[in-house]
Amino acid sequence: MFSGLVRQFAKVRFYRNQILCLESDLNPQIGDSIAVNGACLTAIESTKTHFSVELSKESASLIATENLQGLVHVEPALRLHDGLHGHIVQGHIDCVGVIKSIEMQTNSYVFCIETTQKALECMVEKGSVCIDGISLTIHDVGSSSFSLVIIPHTMQNTLFAGYTIGRRVNIETDIIARSIVNMFHKYMLTHNNPNKKQVIQDIYDSIALSY
């Protein structure tokens, strides 16, 4: 599990045959989970100057592999005593999105990202989303895209400053929102013409009973 609070970059040494080698002083243990641009990957080699991770075919098919060059965001897995400063991030990429526009707004930037309907179903205004490993707050959700307001601190301390229109980004929706949407769809499949209030109450009860 990760928090989406990236404090380190790594430089890609090479990416071939689904092996990604990164120059970094992170020095993880073999078998450690490392989020690279938001994707949870397993360390298979590690030294004081670099480490390597391996991508499965599924992982490679779900992420924007063209961005595995130059600098990438890296985050080690959370430890029990670490603070959760972002939100709960699994490192399981749902899909990619495409940056459709970037607009300056006072001292911040508004990024509009087009993505799938399935991902948009799991997004709400002021909810959380993880973009390329960065925990961010959703500004608005439209019919085919959503927007983010990127503050100066985020621009200065992540790779967002170099992002341009047309770039593909890795998206992980919030696990809590995704679970509720999944429960809703399952409920609708097993109940004929359910009352809206009853649907909400049953889902609420199901969540409450899980704690």
TrEMBL record:
Lumazine-binding repeats by residue range: 1-87, 88-184
Enzyme category, top tier: transferase
Annotated catalysed reactions: 2 6,7-dimethyl-8-(1-D-ribityl)lumazine + H(+) = 5-amino-6-(D-ribitylamino)uracil + riboflavin
Database matches in Pfam families: Lum_binding (PF00677)
Protein keywords: Repeat, Riboflavin biosynthesis, Transferase
Domain (Lumazine-binding): residue spans on this chain: 1-87, 88-184
An annotated GO BP: riboflavin biosynthetic process
InterPro entries xref list: ATP_synth_asu-like_sf (IPR023366), Lumazine-bd (IPR001783), Lumazine-bd_dom (IPR026017), Riboflavin_synthase-like_b-brl (IPR017938)
GO terms for MF: riboflavin synthase activity
E.C. number(s) listed in UniProt: 2.5.1.9
Pathway(s) of this molecule: Cofactor biosynthesis; riboflavin biosynthesis; riboflavin from 2-hydroxy-3-oxobutyl phosphate and 5-amino-6-(D-ribitylamino)uracil: step 2/2
Signal peptide from the UniProt entry: none
Function: Catalyzes the dismutation of two molecules of 6,7-dimethyl-8-ribityllumazine, resulting in the formation of riboflavin and 5-amino-6-(D-ribitylamino)uracil.
Stated name of the protein: Riboflavin synthase
